[in-house]
Amino acid sequence: MNREGWLTELAGKVEYLFKGWDLHPYRVTCGWPCVGALGRKSRRVGECHGAKASKGGMFEIFISPVLDNSLEVAGTVIHEMAHVVAGIEAKHGKGFIKVAKHVGLTRGKPSSAEPGERLNDTLRR
């Protein structure tokens, strides 16, 4: 299976975390974020673009190819899926934070929210 297939399968397996929320249609792929993909001090490892930016009318999630730890990849996919639910206009504000906390992204500041211990335990299983 290639990276895109693995990422798509992973996203499908964690969709249940967003039960009760409006998870808009999305696609996930391996690709370089538009900004900060190879930054020395801070590196962007995931990016979500809104449906209006997509020719297919879907949210587009990009996961950086520099990630090679499956737990870190899963956390990044979930973070970007939280953007799909909250909407791009929410950025990392209150709407995003509410969704992120609901799914277990409780470590770090909102712009780099990562899975807390409980979510990481679930992902390991």
Shape summary: globular
Strand order in the sheet with the most strands: 1-3-2
Low-confidence stretches: none
Structural class: alpha+beta
What does the average pLDDT come to? 93
**Rg to the nearest angstrom?**
13 Å
How many extended strands?
3
Q: What fraction, in percent, of the residue positions are helical?
A: 25-40%
Taking the alpha carbons of the first and last residues, their distance comes to 21 Å
Please give the count of helices: 4
Major sheet: 3 strands, mixed
Instruction: Indicate the proportion of strand residues.
Output: 5-15%
Give the ordered list of helices and strands.
HEEEHHH
* Oligomer designation: single chain
Report what the structure shows.
The protein is α+β, with helices and mostly antiparallel strands and 125 residues long. It has helices at 3-14, 70-86, 94-103, 117-124, and strands at 26-30, 46-49, 59-63. Strands 1-3-2 form a 3-stranded mixed sheet. Helix 2 (70-86) crosses helix 3 (94-103).
Summarize the helices and strands and which ones pair or pack.
Elements: H1 3-14, E1 26-30, E2 46-49, E3 59-63, H2 70-86, H3 94-103, H4 117-124
Parallel strand pairs: 1-3
Antiparallel strand pairs: 2-3
Helix pairs in contact: 1-2, 2-3
